[in-house]
Amino acid sequence: MLLVYLVICVLMIGIVSLFLGNPFPHKETIFPLLFRKNVFGFSVWDSGWLYTGITEYLYLMVTGCVIALVLAFLWLCGVSGGKLAGLDRILLKQCDVKKYMDAMNYAVDYGRGLKLQGFQESVFLLMQQRMVCAWIAGGKLEESRRFLTGEWRGKKNSNVYKQTVRTLELSEAYVSRDAERFHMLLQRAGRRFRKQKLLTARGLFLEQKYEQAAMCLQSYKGENTYHEVLRQYLLGKCLHKMENKKMAEECMEYVSVHGNTMLCQKKAQEWLLNNQENDG
C-alpha cells in the first residue's frame, strides 16, 4: 500500500506542477533584457511551490496527503474486491462448489503463514468467511463449526464473524429440519438475512406450508446461477409435495443441468431417476 500511496502522491504533484510550475527549489531568470545583442536578466532563487505550501499552507498539504491515502486505500479495495469477485464467480456462475472450496482452502492456508496487518487483516477475514460458506455449501457443517469455534483468526465481535456464524446456524437448523429454531434464528438475524426470500421459503417449507413457500419462490428469480439453482431445487421439492410432478420435474431438470458440483445437483438427478422408474 505504501508504494501505491507514493505513486499517487507523485501523480498529484505532477498534476499540480502543470499549473504552479517546478515544485522544488531552483534558480529562475526573470525580466530578460536585450542590449547590444547580449541578453541580461535577473536570477532569483525560487523555493518551489512544494516548500511554500508546506511553510505557508500546511493544511492544504495535509489535506492532499489524506486524499492520496484515501485514493490508495480505495485502489487496494478495488483490486482485492476484483480478485475476490473473480473467485466468487467459480461458485456463483459456474456452481462449482468443489473448485471454490479448494480455492478458499488454499487462500486461507496461505494467509495463516503471513503476518497480516491493517488492510490485509480485513481481506483475510473475508477469505475465512468465504471458506466457511464454501464448506456450508459442500455440506461440511461440523468442520465449519469447529473452525469458527477454535480456528477463526480475528475478532469474533466483528460483523463478518457474526454473519458467518448466523449463516451456519441457519444451515444447521434447516438440515436438521428444526422449524422452530430456524424461525427463531431468522427473526433474530439482521435485515440482510430476513430480506432473502430463499430463507423465508425454507422456513415455510420446514413448517410444511408448501403452497406459501412455492408462491414465495415463484415471486423472484435468483440473482446468479448458484442462487437460481437453489431456488429451483426448493421449488421442485415444494411442487413435489403439492403433487405437481410435471412442474417439479422441470425444476429438477434445471438443477441437474446447471448444478455442476452442488449437493442438490446429485439429489435432483436421483429424484428424476426415481420419478422415471415410478412412471415406468
Descriptive report:
The structure is a single chain. This protein has helices at 2-20, 48-56, 58-92, 97-112, 119-137, 141-151, 159-175, 179-188, 191-194, 197-206, 210-218, 225-241, 245-258, 263-279, and strands at residues 26-35, 38-46. The protein is mainly alpha-helical. The protein has a two-stranded antiparallel ribbon with strand order 1-2. The protein is globular. The termini are far apart.
Primary descriptors:
280 residues, mainly alpha
In terms of topology, how is this protein built?
Layout: H1 2-20, E1 26-35, E2 38-46, H2 48-56, H3 58-92, H4 97-112, H5 119-137, H6 141-151, H7 159-175, H8 179-188, H9 191-194, H10 197-206, H11 210-218, H12 225-241, H13 245-258, H14 263-279
Antiparallel strand pairs: 1-2
Helix pairs in contact: 1-3, 2-3, 3-4, 3-5, 4-5, 5-6, 5-7, 6-7, 7-8, 8-10, 10-11, 10-12, 11-12, 12-13, 13-14
Give a brief rundown of this model:
With 280 residues, the chain is mainly alpha-helical.
Helix content: over 70%
Question: The biggest beta sheet, please?
Answer: 2 strands, antiparallel
Number of strands: 2
Return the structural class: mainly alpha
The unreliable regions are 16-20, 33-37, 71-81
Please indicate the count of domains: 3
- The amount of beta strand, in percent, is 5-15%
State the strand order across the main sheet.
Answer: 1-2
What is the H/E string?
A: HEEHHHHHHHHHHHHH
